[in-house]
Amino acid sequence: MTNFLRNKQLFVILTAVTLLAAVGGGYYYSQAAPSEAPTSEETIKTARVRRGNLIVSASGTGTLIPSTEVSLGFRTGGILTKMSAQVGDQVEAGDLLARLDTAGLERAVTQAEIALRQAEIRLENAQEPPDDADVQKTQDAVDQADATLRLAQVNYEAAQSNVAVNEALEDVQLAHEEALNDYNYWLNEYNAGDADYWFVDDAKQKLDAAKLALARARQRADQTVQTARNDLARAADLYNQAQSALAELVAGPAERTIESLRLDVRTVQLNLAAARENLANAGLSAPIASVVVAVEAEVGETVGAAPIITLASLDNPLVRLYIDEADLGKIAPGCEVEVIFNSMPDDTFVGHVTMVEPQLVLVDGVPMIQALAILDRENTSDAQFLPSGLNASVEVIGGRAQRALLVPIEAVKELAPGSYAVFVVVDGQLKPRPIQVGLRDTSYAEIISGLEEGEEVSTGAVATE
Fold first, then answer.
1. In which element (H, E) is residue 197 found?
2. Domain assignment of residue 186, given as a range
3. Which of 34, 35, 53 lies closest to 43, judged by CA?
4. Is residue 271, in this structure, part of any structural domain at all?
5. Which is it for strands 96-100 and 456-463: parallel, antiparallel or unpaired?
6. What predicted TM-score, i.e. pTM, was given to this entire model?
7. Phi, psi dihedrals of residue 33, rounded to the nearest 5°
8. Coil, strand or helix: which one is 61?
9. Which DSSP string corresponds to 71-137?
């Protein structure tokens, strides 16, 4: 350490400060020298640039958490008939953990399979060309319908000209006319005073009976004709249907019909797939190799979609850590971490930060930075014995410099954000020099460029009284 009399060097320092301000663009004298002129008893304190190791770190706390945690539940409700999982079990991906009653689900699959085959048969039949036997059978139906139609036409014509019916109707009509004439005769006789009213009343009863007989006769005649007309209409419909069936059989089904049958097959296929999926979902399997950490149902219970089994994977243990917000600049994804669990104070686990939460969290009312770090596999051979929830002390390594050029932090002057300089002792004089700074802690700064090992820099003035 070299000392210089303050009075002798005052002019030199003022000159150096002026030059340093020019180099840094905005560096003020107040940053490099006391606000008041030093007394003769003050000297300049210096240090030599040396090589050394520098670690920038932040301390915090953490908790071990699973790298993966999965909560499992059935997609549909049912009665739990099997529970293979127990807390603490090691399971592999695909292991069956629990199963629901499947009797109804199996029936649904069978019914869907039958419905699919029926739909496929209908489509196959529609696409096959008719054989000669089918055509002949349909033609026979047309011929039979034609014969029935001809017979119905004959019956209808016969009903219209039925002699017996017409003669019976004529006889009843004549009887009605006679009864009407007889009634009118006795009514006139009674009005003329030549007959008693009894004759009128008797004639009236006979006329009423003749009217009723005439109405019934006409009704029977009409019914005979209407029945024949109805039979004729039905025969015509059957004949038309038979002809249409023959034409459709010969021409084959319309494209719309084939499309509709295909859609029927597709619909039933989807129903079958859904039924099989429901059956498959009646079994709960492990999606990953993991440890069972919670079971919340027993055989015989009716369960729904709520999770009943929780799995956790500790293959790549994670630590959820918290550090003070003042150390924000010392943590970022990729930073190394050193973890010492409270229950294992003699073991140090290493890893690296994987994520820093973008928002501060409150821990006991104090704002903290929350982050996740993963423990390196090669350094966690006993990870399977680390239960989730272990508390730990965590050291986050924000930066590490090996064999770097170091100067005391007091020697570094910030000219502007990101721009730094120091005073270098050259031939007993203080010379300002710009430098590039790397890592810094509370004591030392890493020099990237601007200084050489062994050079002497000023660290400020100190009283010598």
1. helix 197-251
2. 130-251
3. 34
4. no
5. unpaired
6. 0.49
7. -140, 155
8. strand
9. EE--SS-EEEEEE---TT-EE-TT-EEEEE--HHHHHHHHHHHHHHHHHHHHHHHHHSPPPHHHHHH
- The pLDDT tens digits of the residues spanning 58-106 come to 999 999 988 788 899 988 888 999 999 888 888 899 999 999 999 999 9
Q: What angle do CA 113, 118, 124 make, to 5 degrees?
A: 125
H or E stretch covering 142: helix 132-160
Specify if 268 maps to a domain. Answer: no
Sign of the dihedral through C-alpha 283, 288, 292, 293: negative
Instruction: Answer yes or no: is 384 within a domain.
Output: yes
CB 390 within 8 A of CB 347: no
Same domain, 337 and 407: yes
Pair (398, 461) in one structural domain: yes
Instruction: Report the SS3 class of residue 297.
Output: coil
CATH number of the CATH domain containing 28: 2.40.30.170
203 pLDDT higher than 60: yes
**Residues 391, 60: contact at Cβ < 8 Å?**
no
How far is it, in rounded angstroms, from Cα 131 to Cα 128?
A: 9
394 in any annotated domain: yes
Same domain, 296 and 379: no
Least confident of 96-105, 130-139, 193-202: 130-139
The residue ranges of DSSP E strands in 190-305, in sequence order, are 283-285, 290-295, 302-303
Same domain, 235 and 149: yes
Please state at what angle helix 163-192 crosses helix 197-251, rounded to 10 degrees.
160
Instruction: Tell me which of 93-102, 156-165, 267-276, 354-363 is least confident.
Output: 156-165
Note the pLDDT tens digit of each residue in 285-316: 999 888 888 899 999 999 988 998 998 887 77
DSSP 377: G
* 172 close to 217: Cβ distance less than 8 angstroms: yes
Question: For residues 297 and 77, what is the distance between their CA atoms, to the nearest angstrom?
Answer: 13
Q: How high does pLDDT run on average in the chain?
A: 83
Phi, psi torsion values for 178, nearest 5 degrees: -65, -45
- Using only C-alpha atoms, the chain has a radius of gyration, in whole angstroms, of 56
Q: How many domains does the chain contain in total? A: 3
